[in-house]
């Protein structure tokens, strides 16, 4: 694949986590000229999906910026590690869904961006079903 | 772009107000000089507008300045027309034709003169519109500048940094259970039988007042139109367009009156409903005691207590904001059929609430919500089925670290429960 892209991998290939558990893993920025990378943002976040307008909240956020004198080394994978919160748990409802993910956003020269995202589940709740009132 | 347009529009409006209203009055008060003149004539000038005829007082004055004689029509510097012919005539009556008065004239342009000066302080109110445009537009521009080039995640991280440090009234860090509503408003009222008396989601009095205000406002506006329509028919010149226009609004108004009367009857006829709980917040897999009390004078077909969970999504569709709701859980906790509630002897019952394991906790974000409540459904003879809701907060199931155990509770009072059939029941602990 020659297009710039980001790959994200969770340690232990975990996909379901309990509140308070440690989420860790690594990301790689591929097919990008290292000199073009201005900044990298790594976020652990949840966002809503479904009928309502999207809400988004960031649990952990890190930004590496060359303008701030920070080193961005594309030869080695970047690491992330965070203790997951107690809530909100991942939820698959009828018109409200809550989805957790790790998102890596790479800012390139000339205003271009590359985004990679990997989902995981916080908690293990079953999907909800509509009931008649 | 939108905020820039707002900001520029506000600036243009402000500049226009300054140029046409503020600066001329300032010039009259600071640049113009006092000079004698003789009133030669007077009249009420008229101008036609969409709102009817508008008026302004005008006086013809004659004066000599710099060796030149001037004769002009004037009164004040604004020269604005407004309604009220009588008031304008009253102004003119203060001046006698042929008599000498003081006028204020522009020494740089002696043909410009006025008979009154001062400031129209009410004009400052006209600043509200452009200044609000400038504030909204400027605020939006500042926000755009601060968030320019920043990702959605970075903006969210910036916005969340401050609230995380706040504490609620019980000493818990608000960030301990992010996105779960706090329960301080639910646990601030001790119960008489169990630990907490749950507040209703909407107080009947407030709901009644809101309906009354909406009813009065709507029907107040519509009645004005209706009177005009009826008058046109009585005078033999029926305005069919107005009549057809007002009919749907009248139907809505009548509907509001019916709705208000129904609310009034239900609120006064069906007595207060009380629900108390042995602990709060509640957790999946745990068992709680509930106390239910229904007062009034009713013959009930059935009385039900349910635990329900609703999803609520708020979204924008065009310029409208819509809210959609779906019930995703409903459990009957208590039901009793065919009995009577006598005045002064409320129906009282205790029951057990078992919160099923593996259900979603309460959740609230800006546009999405998962809310749990205890719902009392009253089916009384001669009344429409009526529901009263008492919100509860569900925390996630026990995490094993004891973090979501509650740390504060009122002592639960001990009280015997009397059901309407006279059986006295000791509460189980």
Q: What secondary-structure arrangement, pairings included, does this model have?
A:
The complex is a heterodimer of chains A (133) and B (429).
Chain A: E1 5-10, E2 16-17, E3 22-30, E4 37-50, E5 56-65, E6 78-83, E7 91-92, E8 96-108, E9 113-122
Parallel strand pairs in A: 2-9
Antiparallel strand pairs in A: 1-3, 3-6, 4-5, 4-8, 7-8, 8-9
Chain B: H1 2-30, E1 33-49, E2 52-65, E3 68-74, H2 85-93, E4 100-106, E5 109-114, H3 128-147, H4 152-160, E6 196-197, H5 204-234, H6 240-269, E7 270-277, E8 287-296, E9 298-317, E10 320-341, E11 347-354, E12 363-364, E13 368-380, E14 386-392, E15 417-418, E16 424-425
Antiparallel strand pairs in B: 1-2, 1-4, 2-3, 4-5, 6-7, 7-8, 8-11, 9-10, 9-13, 12-13, 13-14, 15-16
Helix pairs in contact in B: 1-3, 5-6
Protein described:
The complex is a heterodimer of chains A (133) and B (429). With 133 residues, chain A is mostly beta strands. In chain A, 0% of the residues lie in helices and 54% in strands. Chain A has a single domain (5-122), classed as Immunoglobulin-like (Sandwich), CATH 2.60.40. In chain A, strands 2, 4, 5, 7, 8 and 9 form a six-stranded mixed sheet that branches. Chain A is elongated and about 60 Å long. With 429 residues, chain B is α+β, with helices and mostly antiparallel strands. In chain B, β15 and β16 (424-425) form a beta hairpin. In chain B, the strands form four sheets. A five-stranded antiparallel sheet of chain B has the order 3-2-1-4-5. In chain B, strands 9, 10, 12, 13 and 14 form a five-stranded antiparallel sheet that branches. The longest helix of chain B is centred in the middle third of the chain and has 31 residues, at 204-234.
């Amino acid at each position: 694949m020659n297009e710039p892209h980001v790959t994200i991998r969770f340690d232990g290939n975990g996909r379901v986590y309990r509140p308070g558990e440690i989420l860790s893993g690594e990301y790689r920025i591929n097919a990008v000229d290292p000199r073009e990378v201005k900044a990298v943002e790594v976020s652990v976040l949840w966002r809503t999906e479904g009928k309502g307008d999207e809400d988004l909240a960031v649990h952990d956020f890190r930004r590496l910026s060359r303008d701030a004198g920070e080193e961005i080394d594309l030869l080695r994978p970047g690491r992330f590690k965070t203790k997951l919160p107690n809530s909100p748990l991942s939820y698959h409802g009828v018109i409200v869904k809550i989805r957790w993910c790790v998102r890596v956003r790479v800012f390139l020269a000339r205003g271009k961006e590359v985004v990679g995202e990997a989902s995981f589940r916080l908690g293990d709740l079953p999907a909800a079903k509509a009931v008649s009132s | 772009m939108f905020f820039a347009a707002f900001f520029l529009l506000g600036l243009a409006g402000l500049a226009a107000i300054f140029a046409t209203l503020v600066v001329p009055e300032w010039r009259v008060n600071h640049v113009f000089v006092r000079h004698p003149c003789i009133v030669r004539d007077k009249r009420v000038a008229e101008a036609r507008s969409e709102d009817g005829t508008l008026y302004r007082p005008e006086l013809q004055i004659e004066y000599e300045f710099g060796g030149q004689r001037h004769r002009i029509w004037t009164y004040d510097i604004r020269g604005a027309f407004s309604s009220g012919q009588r008031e304008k005539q009253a102004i003119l009556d203060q001046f006698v034709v042929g008599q000498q008065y003081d006028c204020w004239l522009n020494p740089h342009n002696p043909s410009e003169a006025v008979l009154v000066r001062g400031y129209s302080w009410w004009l400052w109110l006209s600043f509200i519109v452009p200044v609000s445009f400038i504030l909204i537009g400027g605020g939006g521009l500042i926000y755009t500048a601060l968030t320019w080039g920043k990702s959605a995640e970075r903006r969210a991280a910036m916005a969340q940094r401050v609230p995380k440090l706040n504490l609620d009234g019980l000493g818990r860090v608000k960030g301990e259970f992010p996105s779960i509503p706090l329960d301080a408003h639910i646990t601030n009222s001790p119960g008489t039988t169990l630990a907490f008396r749950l507040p209703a989601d909407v107080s009947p009095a407030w709901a009644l007042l809101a309906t009354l205000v909406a009813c009065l406002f709507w029907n107040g506006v519509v009645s004005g139109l209706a009177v005009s329509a009826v008058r046109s028919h009585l005078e033999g010149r029926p305005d069919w367009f107005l009549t057809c226009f007002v009919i749907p609004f009248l139907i809505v108004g009548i509907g509001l009156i019916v709705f208000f009367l129904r609310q009034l009857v239900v609120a006064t006829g069906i007595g207060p409903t009380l629900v108390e709980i042995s602990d709060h917040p509640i957790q999946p897999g745990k068992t709680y005691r509930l106390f239910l009390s229904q007062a009034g004078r009713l013959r009930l077909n059935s009385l039900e207590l349910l635990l329900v969970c609703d999803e609520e999504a708020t979204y924008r569709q065009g310029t409208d904001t819509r809210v959609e709701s779906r019930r995703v859980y409903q459990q009957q906790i208590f039901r009793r059929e065919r009995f009577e509630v006598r005045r002064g002897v409320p129906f009282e019952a205790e029951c057990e609430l078992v919160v099923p394991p593996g259900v979603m906790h309460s959740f609230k974000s800006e546009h999405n919500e998962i809310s749990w409540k205890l719902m009392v459904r009253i089916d009384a003879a001669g009344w429409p089925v009526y529901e009263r809701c008492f919100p509860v907060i569900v925390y996630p199931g026990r995490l094993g670290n004891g973090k979501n155990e509650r740390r504060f509770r009122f002592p639960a009072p001990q009280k015997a429960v009397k059901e309407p059939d006279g059986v006295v029941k000791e509460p189980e602990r």
